Amino acid sequence: MLNLTKVNHATIIPERDTYKGMLHKAKDFITWGQIDAPAIADLIRNRGRMSGDKSVDDDVISACSEYDSVDSFAKALAAGEATMKSVEGLKPVLRLHPPRGSKGWGGIKRPYTTGGALGFRGSEIGELVSRMV
Fold first, then answer.
1. CA 87 – CA 67 distance, rounded (Å)
2. Cβ-contact 2, 11 below 8 angstroms
3. Structural domain tally of the chain?
4. What would the mean pLDDT of 67-83 be, rounded to a whole number?
5. What is the CATH number of the domain that holds 13?
6. pTM > 0.85: yes or no
7. Which domain holds residue 76?
8. Per residue, what are the HEC states of 34-97?
């Protein structure tokens, strides 16, 4: 239900109890955190896709939703006022690269709090996303 079917897929979900339960159930397989609006805007511009594998820009967002730009849509997503379904035709899954840089993966069998790569990252998820865009 989180639309995470493959490795290095990402999705932006609102902060609700039902989603928190799903995240905690899958904590041994995924990492998550709270991302800010500029990072969401960067993620949507670089990795967001419309139906037909078209890229996302301000014109597409204004034509397919009530938002006038990617930045205003990202602010609404970060505030929990919108979802990825708010833009008609926007795919809910963002396909990312593997993490770049010297930090590497951090281990896929340990939680983030002990030096691994899994579980809750808090606001530090933005750094990981910037390495994967």
1. 9
2. yes
3. 1
4. 94
5. 1.10.15.30
6. yes
7. 9-132
8. CCCHHHHHHHHHHHCEECCCEECCHHHHHHHCCCCCHHHHHHHHHHCCCCHHHCCCECCCEECC
